[in-house]
Each structure stands twice: as structure tokens, then as C-alpha cells.
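F.,

This is the one I mentioned.
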């Protein structure tokens, strides 16, 4: 019995580090998937190693080209690049499993020649019947019955028209490895039976192709979710077979990242949870810097007193050994707060460019804005950059600049004071006296402060509420005086008068 890690485990460091990201093209990309690639990418970049991006698309019933394209779109949006793999090529192409069947057959032949796998003809019904006859629980599954079939027995099965599956001969000893995050882990001898790697008919299974690809592509560190830990036992067993058959000459190191829980309860964040939908988060207005910063905190931290940092700072500090093994909970509010911090870190021109798609999506401007609209955006963007947490909030705050008729929100109208009409009339009178060429935020503030606060004796909150609603239709908006300057004197006066008329 052995309870020590395999001495053939890699000792690769620095530029020799090779990690991989190998999703299946099924469904929409989710944030858990992005955290996985983020940690792999950061580890590769920190060490000066390589990230390999391959696609596990052997399930024809579930895989789709649409999902594949969405994976590419997701990685490009979050600005994560890769060194080898789909779309960029590399020495281990092809990088889609559906194109590697001949390679898998060659590896299977080597395992057969080495005696590391064997033919298995047992059906599920036969396995159940034997377990029942032997007083063995059915849930224990396969009983290793076919391990020592004679040539005569195999011939008899083939004569019945049966095709064999191929099973790995699992070592009769403990399997131990040192997890990069969790420390030493041991799978006791006998805790799982010999398992199928190729079904009858020659169909290779995930339990076979995943480790084979890792071996052939020289992956040194397998960093993946904690939920995949049970399959690691089988990967260790298969890797020993691959080593014995000369397919590879080292065993990778494994690191299992903590689960990401939903906002409530203790269940893993489901693909069906809105928070899990990467593109929905983008639609809300996350920028990739903010989202990746937050996802990095789901198991790792730069410092105990610092949650906001750049990707360059993360790469400089990231070590997979520093990841916390305890489950991490997805907190939407915290994610949005961190995103807001990153929005404020953007250059003004960069922020202005990023809000264009959101304004266009809301129908306020064209996808390719006019020069007039670009000028308005450039002037208005600084007014909201300090106030929003999500880019999706911008249309609601700046939309008033691009419409001819203001749509008054119900809550804004209900919040108007009883003397709103008087306030608006006084505002018009004060602003009419401001010379056309001097209609600046400072001049507007001085005129309204004198007319509403000093002369009418109103508190600023009451004084400026009606003009704000008149201009924007909302209770909350960008700074009022700067908004008036952007709209200009004529349009400002028109809107103030329009609300007076609306109030009757």
C-alpha cells in the first residue's frame, strides 16, 4: 500500500508552467467559467507560462457552434488571451476534441499494449445481478468481473455479437496527491472500481480524453473547480496508465478551487441564476476590469484590507497556493460596487466610448453617433462617471440630453412640492436674465440660488427639485446646473415652461 504522492509528479515552475481552459460549448458562458479561466490565466501570466484553450466538444447532442462562438466572444470581452488553442493554433493542434479521434485511438492502442486497460463485456443488468447474488450493494456498481477474462471467454462474448468497452485497471493501492489549494488528498484503495474510458463501439469518454489531452499537451497544472474533485481519483489512475504506457513522462499537479455559492443558501451558483449569466452582467453594464476584479475575490485576495485592484496587480501577486479552499458567495451588490470603483478609474475618453453602446441600445443615439451627439457625450460623461456603478445606468441619467420631449417619471411627479409651479416660473424669470453667451453652470447656479433660495426662502432640495424634473423627468439626475449648460438657454427655458403647462 502506498500513501505518498507519485514521484513522477511535475516540478515545473516559471516559464515551464502550462495550464489549460477546456470548456464544453453548451449553453451561455457563466461567471463560474470565467473565474476558472481567470485563475488559470493569472497563474500562467504570473509565472511567464502558457495558457492553452481547447474545446471539449465530444457530446454532439449538447454541443453547438453557437455556444462555441459565445465562448470566444466571452473571452474577448473580458480581455483574456491565450497562447495556444482554438483560433490561434499551436504545436498540439487540433484543439477541439471532436477532431482528435484518431489521436485517442492511438493512445488507446498504447494502453492496450501496456496491459493498462482491458476488454469489458459486462452489461449494466449483469453487473446488478452479480451484485445482488453476492450481497453487494447495487450502488457500488461495477465489480471488476472482466479483469481476468480468458481468451476463450472473450471469444465467446464476441461470438454473441458483443463489442467490448475498455476499462482502466485501477491500482490496488491508495492514490495520493498534494492539492495546490487543499494540501494532501488520498483516495483509499478500492474506493472506486475499474472504469470505462472507451464505450463499446469505440466512443471515447470524458474520463479518457480529458487526461489524454492534458498529457499530450504537456499540461503541468490542472486548476479547476472543487466539484470536479471526485473525477481526480480516476484521472490519477489513468495518468499512471499513461505513464506506464509511455504516453507522458510526468503527472500534473492539481488544484481545486472553492465552490461559488448563490447569494442565499448553501447551493452552488446555478447556471440558471441571473447572477451567473455573463452576458446579462455585461448587459447590466459591468466592465471587464470590474467583473474580473470581483471574480478574483471569490477565493483569493490581494490584501486583507484591499478589494479594488487592477489586473496587472493581480497578475503580479497571484499564486494558486494562496487561494482559500472555503466556498465563496457571489454578492451582486459588492460586485456592482467594485465595478463602480473601476468605472471611476477609467480615462474620461475611455468611459465616454464605453457608454455609447448603452445609449444606442436604449434608442437615444445611433450605433454610430453623429458628431453632435459625440460632442454631447464627451461633455456629459464626466457628470455621471462619478455617480454610476454600472454602464447600464447611464441611459437613464443622460437620455434627457437626446430627446425633444421629456417623459416625466411617476415618482418624480409625485415628489414635486405644492409650489412647484411657482418655483418653475421664478426659475424662468431668473434664467431669462442670464446673457445668452454667459449661460454657464456657474452663472445658472448664481441666478437660481438668488431667485429661489434667497428671494423665495426655499431650501435647496425643494428649490431645485422642480427644475430637475422639468429638464430630465427624473428625481435623480446629473448635476442640475451643468445639465442646464449642456442643454443651453433656449432648451432649458422651453423645458421649464413645458412642465409649468403640464402642471396646469
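My design for it:
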Amino acid at each position: 500500500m502506498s500513501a505518498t504522492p507519485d514521484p513522477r509528479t511535475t516540478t515545473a515552475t516559471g516559464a515551464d508552467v502550462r495550464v489549460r481552459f477546456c470548456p464544453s460549448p453548451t449553453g451561455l458562458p457563466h461567471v463560474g467559467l470565467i473565474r476558472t479561466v481567470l485563475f488559470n490565466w493569472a497563474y500562467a501570466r504570473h509565472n511567464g507560462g502558457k495558457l492553452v484553450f481547447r474545446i471539449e466538444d465530444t457530446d454532439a447532442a449538447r454541443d453547438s457552434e453557437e455556444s462555441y462562438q459565445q465562448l470566444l466572444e466571452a473571452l474577448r470581452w473580458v480581455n483574456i488571451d491565450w497562447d495556444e488553442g482554438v483560433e490561434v493554433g499551436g504545436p498540439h493542434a487540433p484543439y477541439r476534441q471532436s477532431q482528435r479521434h484518431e489521436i485517442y485511438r492511438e493512445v488507446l492502442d498504447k494502453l492496450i499494449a501496456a496491459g493498462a486497460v482491458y476488454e469489458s463485456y459486462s452489461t449494466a443488468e449483469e453487473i446488478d445481478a452479480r451484485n445482488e447474488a453476492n450481497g453487494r450493494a447495487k450502488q457500488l456498481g461495477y465489480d471488476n468481473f472482466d479483469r481476468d477474462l480468458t481468451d476463450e471467454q472473450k471469444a465467446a462474448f464476441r461470438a454473441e455479437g458483443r463489442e467490448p468497452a475498455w476499462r482502466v485497471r485501477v491500482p490496488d493501492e491508495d492514490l495520493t496527491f498534494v492539492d495546490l489549494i487543499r494540501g494532501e488528498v488520498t483516495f483509499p484503495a478500492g474506493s472506486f472500481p475499474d472504469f470505462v474510458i472507451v464505450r463499446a463501439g469505440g466512443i471515447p469518454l470524458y474520463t479518457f480524453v480529458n487526461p489524454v489531452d492534458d498529457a499530450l499537451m504537456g499540461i503541468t497544472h490542472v486548476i479547476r473547480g472543487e466539484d470536479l474533485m471526485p473525477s481526480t481519483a480516476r484521472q490519477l489512475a489513468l495518468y499512471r496508465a499513461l505513464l506506464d504506457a509511455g504516453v507522458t513522462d510526468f503527472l500534473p499537479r492539481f488544484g481545486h478551487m472553492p465552490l461559488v455559492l448563490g447569494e442565499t443558501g448553501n447551493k452552488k451558483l446555478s447556471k440558471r441564476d441571473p447572477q451567473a449569466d455573463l452576458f446579462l452582467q455585461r448587459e447590466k453594464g459591468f466592465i471587464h476590469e470590474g467583473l474580473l476584479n470581483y471574480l478574483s475575490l471569490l477565493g483569493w485576495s490581494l490584501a486583507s484590507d484591499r478589494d479594488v485592484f487592477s489586473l496587472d496587480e493581480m497578475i503580479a501577486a497571484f499564486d494558486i497556493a494562496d487561494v482559500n479552499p472555503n466556498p465563496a458567495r457571489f454578492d451582486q451588490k459588492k460586485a456592482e460596487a467594485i465595478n463602480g470603483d473601476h468605472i471611476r478609474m477609467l480615462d474620461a475618453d475611455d468611459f465616454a466610448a464605453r457608454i455609447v453602446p448603452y445609449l444606442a441600445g436604449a434608442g437615444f443615439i445611433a450605433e454610430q453617433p453623429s458628431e453632435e451627439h459625440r460632442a454631447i457625450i464627451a461633455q456629459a460623461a464626466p457628470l455621471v462617471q462619478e455617480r454610476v456603478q454600472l454602464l447600464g445606468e447611464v441611459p437613464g441619467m443622460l437620455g434627457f440630453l437626446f430627446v425633444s420631449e421629456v417623459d416625466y417619471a411617476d415618482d418624480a411627479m409625485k415628489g414635486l412640492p405644492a409650489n412647484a409651479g411657482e418655483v418653475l416660473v421664478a426659475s424662468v424669470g431668473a434664467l431669462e436674465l442670464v446673457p445668452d453667451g454667459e449661460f454657464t453652470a456657474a452663472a445658472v447656479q448664481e441666478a437660481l440660488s438668488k431667485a429661489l433660495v434667497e428671494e423665495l426662502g426655499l431650501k435647496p432640495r425643494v428649490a431645485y427639485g422642480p427644475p430637475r424634473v422639468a429638464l430630465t423627468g427624473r428625481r435623480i439626475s446629473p448635476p442640475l446646473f451643468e445639465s442646464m449648460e449642456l442643454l443651453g438657454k433656449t432648451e432649458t427655458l422651453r423645458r421649464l415652461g413645458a412642465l409649468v403647462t403640464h402642471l396646469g
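The chain has a mean pLDDT of 95.

Talk soon.
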